[in-house]
Amino acid sequence: FPLCRAPAGEMEEFHQFMVARKSLRRKVSVKMPDGSVRKGRLFPWDKVSELRAKLELKHADWITGSNGSPLMPSSSMLSVVGAHEEPSQLAVVAQDQVEAALKDRASSLTLTARQDPQLHLRTGASIPRIGYGLYKVVGEAAEHAVTTALNLGYRQFDTAQVYQNEESVGRALSQAEVPREELFVSTKLAPGRLDAVEALRESLESLGLKYVDLYLIHAPPGRKARQGVWSSMEEAYDLGLARSIGVCNYGLHHLQELMASCTVPPAVNQIEVTPFLQRDDILGFCQEHQICIQAYSPLCKASRLEDPRLLAIAEKHGRTSAQVLIRWSLQRGLIPLPKSVTPERMAENLAGCLDEFQLDQQDMQLMSRWDENYVTGWDPTSQE
Question: pTM of the full predicted structure?
Fold first, then answer.
């Protein structure tokens, strides 16, 4: 269970356990004691126990809290709808119980903001090396996801006007016991909006904040509007509504045009970058002009996690495919913005940043040959 570190000397057994355990999982609907029905994941507990015994795993701490309570709670508390096994043979991962276990494990996980490495933007602001993306997470789910991410140790949150979740994100941040100065919050000017100051004031009201750490143009405006929109972004920066400003989905020609006319250069360009979509021309220009790259969809929306080449490198280092992709981003100097609403995946992604493992030169050279212009979503970088 990837919410705590494997004991020294048992990494290989731990990896085998995680791979095999995943195959046992299936989705179920769970009737809670209050009568509500929630979705969960079901594990035949007897089979998981047999698997642990087969691999001779000696450390029960892998799947228990520091006080000995199970991270996967006893299903005797629950009745399972549509399951064939008896409740006594099951363990269901319920969201609120996982979070309670995460808090219990906080000291051993050591996933805290103080250990989250930082980069410095050209404005002098510090930005965490990894962020939490909130695309397509709305309502209570967004609020719940941000709360979980905060408990795990995430401190950078990326939202946008078009995501329609700024209010939910703001509620979760306001309830967090984390000082504002330890948070890094970014949002984006919606496509088609021209007045960045007005739009940002609306976003700040929704977020319940006095300023954002980073304000981005979500996509390149039309050629005739671009300079005016950036001037409005500069005004928002001068007013102190945003500590840094930048762009999203800007291609090389967009950046060249902007740098030739701007007063305040962009601090960030947020684009999709992965080993399968490397964009060396954009990265080279940004590095030359001190523009940091935030990489959205750094896990290819999970579509390439089973790539045999990626799996081979993950096995070599005793890590998951997702962690290898995140480490690749970090070693390329990028700021990855992985997105997941599953607590164990969120912890796994963050560990990919905080763990001390490194991809070696051979790994990086091999991965440099994987580029195939593989875009998982939209790609405005080539539009005029």
Answer: 0.72
